[in-house]
Amino acid sequence: MVVIPSSEEQRETKFNSFPFPLKLFVISMALSSSISGIYDIFTKYGQLPSFLFLFSLLAILKITTILHENIHKKTYNLCTGNSGKIYYSWTKHSYFMPDKDCPASLYKIDLLSPLALTFLHGVLACLLIYLFPSVFVRDLMLCSLALNFLGSMSDLYAFYKLKGFDNSWMVTYNIEHIIIYKKA
Fold it and tell me: What are the residue boundaries of the structural domains of the chain, listed by start?
């Protein structure tokens, strides 16, 4: 359901930036993808390669998370001339927090910009699977690609919710909510 103001007089709309059902979906898909990859490696190669798989997967995910958030920051800076701060976490959600509000149309560009990373990750995965046709490389690349895409789900959700808003609306983001308000 897209959040669209009921009338032109409505000045502010607010929605959850990452609702619980979407979190549950992402966590369940991430766990099933990771467990199936680790199990596949464990049954084919044993315990040590499965630990190496898990370590490699975590390293790739941390690198792509850092790149993902830096793409948000760079895109926001290029579109608005403003900056912000990136909050990294090993155990929780990493995110970019803009320092100023942004027009809705520019914010939508910022939301979609990390999908370029997912595309490049997919191209690299295909290339590596072609060059090194082993179960380990295949499972590692496909699992990390799936998890990379799942990491963009909150961005895609916010983009979907903002699709009815044009440049006359401003967006304020915090970790809990996205607030859209009419420019004065």
Answer: 12-182
